[in-house]
Specification:
Blueprint: H1 7-15, E1 21-25, H2 28-37, E2 46-50, E3 62-68, H3 77-87, E4 88-99, H4 105-114, H5 136-145, E5 148-163, H6 164-175, H7 177-180, H8 185-202, E6 210-224
Length: 225
Amino acid sequence: MGCGDGKITADFAHTLPKSRIVGVDSSSAMITYAKENYSSRIYPNLTFSCIDARSLEFNQEFDLVFSNATLHWIKDHQAFLQGANSALTDRGRLIISCGGEGNAAQVLATFAELTSIDIWKPYFTDFDNPYFFYGVKDYQTWLEQSGFKVNRLELVPKDMTHQGKSGLAGWIRTTWMPFTKYVPVPQQEEFIGQFVELFLSRNPLDPQGLIHVSMVRLEADAYKI
């Protein structure tokens, strides 16, 4: 679920040639790309479909539902979990990893401070944060309510590093476009530059010249009961 360009899904198909593998994504562009680059001629057990994670309509067809780095884009995880449960056979397994509670807190705090400054504030009047980072307590409840038994559920901290100002700026430029796109293109580099300076004023470089960003992954391993 959330197959993107299809590479990982194709890896599943290659590793499990006797299994039926289906990659789904809500982006039609990604599905088109995946179909073109991992065709059924080469992977006869692999198909791709444009489906929203909240609208899975499979009925006891799979032994495993897997998702990586996707669910933090989705607010309604309960709808996904209920659909995933319906898609699984008895005792079928669910494995997910996504941004979790506390993920990129320093980054989000810096954006909140920066976008409150007079020069940038007008561009973010209608801003809607597209990320949803949930914790273990909520997820335990949602899994159980959706018919799952939890094997493992935890928040896993990750230390992300960037090489100096240019490294952090490059990451903001390429990864945080849901924020930077609100600023007119001619001013985006100035906005990113101010973000870097503000971030460093709160989170200084280490002795090796690296910038550390605290990331958190929500990881779940559960099975259908």
